[in-house]
Design a protein that fits this description.
CATH superfamily of the largest domain: P-loop containing nucleotide triphosphate hydrolases
Oligomer: single chain
Distance between the termini: 21 Å
Shape: elongated
Largest sheet: 6 strands, mixed
CATH topology of the largest domain: Rossmann fold
Strand order of the largest sheet: 6-7-8-4-9-10
CATH architecture of the largest domain: 3-Layer(aba) Sandwich
Helix content: 25-40%
Structural class: alpha/beta
Bound molecules: adenosine-5'-triphosphate
Amino acid sequence: MSYILETKGLTKIYGSKAAVKEVNMHIPEGQIYGLIGPNGAGKTTIMRMISGLATPTRGDYSLFGKTGAERGRLLSQVGVLIEAPGLYPKFSAQENLKIKCIALGVDWRREVPELLRLVGLEGVDPRKAAGAFSLGMRQRLGIALALVGEPKMLVLDEPINGLDPEGIKEMREIFVRMREEKGIAILISSHILEELDKVADCYGVINEGTLLDEFSAEQLHLRSGKYVKIRAEETDRALEVLERMNISGQKMEERDCIRVTGHTDRTAEMAKALVTAGVALQEIYVHNMSLEDYYLSMTKGGHHD
Ligand code: ATP
């Protein structure tokens, strides 16, 4: 697989504290990479280093396979939105974009309408000052600004933080549109795991400066350990019924619940047998471990194979 960005032993030390430790990260071309981790894990610090905004204490990274001066020239192909977008509050979305286009020598007449469309701001009043925008609109304008100059990769630090559910959904659509229409690779950091679960193609999990693991969405689903969850009033009787079907289940920590690992294809059969045996069945379904569950199991229990 070819990577648009690869880090090797990337480390950043502030004073005596390592904010990022020996990180080896791989961002494939044209994919959405979700960098997940709690506050203070080191996400912003990694993003600042790979965008050229901070110098690594140790280690290195390559962009499009290049390091050193060659990489420096390629940094213009990385669009960045870290922390609040740098907007001119008195100017409109159109004017903000026009200024950046002119600064980068881009044809603003062609680019500005296209950028507004990509981030869903095409209908915004051209007289409205960016300072009066909602948080969601400001974030979208920030992304449009990061897209000036047709970058191959976007680095977005917590772009959905603080948005309402509608705003999060719109942002998700924008990410997918950028990947599908422009083939842009996007590195997104977030602690809202369920939101990344819906868009990311691959993930890196970081905790206390250390990248614990990287995995694709496919691997996540393979590793996620599907199981059948049964909620019934009399769990002992339910377990007996399952045993007669040669299915072994375990009581879960959650009261009145049983977990059956495997046998997901026999869920309907189990439901029928339980009901026939007179067990008061409240629910039975195939549980898919979510990204949240997986992440919690990793950050609490260490590395997953
Ligand atoms: P958040 O989601 O809260 O932004 P994060 O995962 O992005 O968290 P970082 O902002 O990268 O984490 O911070 C990682 C660690 O490095 C934290 O302990 C932070 O206090 C420390 N840190 C970050 N920047 C600096 C700095 N300029 N000087 C000193 N320490 C810093």
